[in-house]
Structure prediction request, 517 residues.
Amino acid sequence: QTKTGVALLYDEVSENAYDIRLKLTKEVLTIQKQDVVCVSGSDHSANHRTVTLRRQPVGGLGLSIKGGAEHKVPVVISKIFKDQAADQTGMLFIGDAIIQVNGINVESATHEEVVHLLRNAGDEVTITVQYLREAPSFLKLPLGSPGPSSDHSSGASSPLFDSGLHLNGNSSNTAPSSPSSPIANEPKYEKHWLDTLSVPLSMARISRYKAGTGKLRSNAFEVLALDGISTGILQFYTAQESADWLRAISTNISDLTLQNMKMANKCCSPSDQVIHMGWVNERLEGTDSSQLYKCKFLALKGSSFYIFSTPPVSTLDWVRAEKIYNLCEVLFKIHKLWLADDCWLQANLYLGIHQDFDLEDQRPYCFSVMVGHGKSHYFNVEMGSELAVWEKSFQRAIFLEVQRTGSKTYMCSWQGDTLCFTVDFALGFTCFDSKTKNVLWKFKFSQLKGSSDDGKTRVKLLFQNLDTKQIETKELEFQDLTAVLHCIHSFIAAKVASVDPVFIDSQSIARKYMYNN
Prediction:
């Protein structure tokens, strides 16, 4: 199914916007611009057309013009009146820039100079025109339907003077002149939408932010292909139009990503499947960088969480990730959601682990992935639906890895003794001597009643003795305490999910609020 619609292409250098047409298919987003093309006859010059108009007693030249050198744009035809001189030629169109009038070049002329020339050019006026493909939107030229015979009169107001040349100029001829009709062997022209840029959507990404800032564009976004080709800034007339196109393009990108995942998974073992992957923006940590983000490509595959600078397109690319983390030892946390009533929701989804984040930047849909040694990655996505998918995907990937792994054992120490601490999906917690392998203590997951840590290496685990009902405190010291705490969290969450999946779904902050928006 193909989606089409009219939008604006914003040029950040000139700060002008131009009318374009978007055509969205399953795999490609195409940008089209209007142009005048020769559809029959000898095409002596497709770009420049020279047309002779015969001024009529009623209706004059039958056109209006806008623009001029004082506005840094050419003078263009802004209206063509039905069945009058300009319309009858079949060779003039709204959006045509006037290059010459009776052999006089007017490309650098002001509006008034061109009006004066046209009104005093006599009964026969020869003009040379070239269609202005990138007419600034401030000219407010009606797009009209292709072809000169439709009624092109515009109801849109413009800050520029719109001079009507459908009135009589200085004509010496009082008798009705013959109409400006096209000659039989003259070339025939029509206005068409022509493809100017095609952006493949496979592994493409969308950006709604102004480059190098945290500022959200108003009703605008950019689509960037894997090879770096960009649509430029696409602007829409209403927030609803912008949202509709954003959703449609994002859906097609997601569908293609799903196809790529299925292809990749054919080459992978059942224990090494891709669960989810996609583009995010990662906030750069450091001084004065709260607004600086860099594009990253994340993937959840098998036992690992990958961070790439560019998407993996071959099997070899997976070893070239910037960072690779074990899924049992990461913790997913949602920070911000943008709600319908324009308020922030700060959601803390972690147990007993303190982490400070500077949340001054105004990007919605933020999450972090906390990793070992107290480090973390802070990400932002473009849409709330993406945040919900990432939340669910991290849950699924972690739960699958916990069930596949079954258990994780960490070296630890207490009071000079080297010990081993095991988290087991079926048995719970076990601590044993690393040399003798003698079990010192073991508890089920349900017996863990609380924990506290010093934020560095030491943790206290509070277990309830099933016989005495008393709380027993077990202290341990780990080289990477954060990874162990994340692992405990992952195993307990996976255990709860296996017993009561409805409870896990009910804890989903993103899905609860996003799917309704």
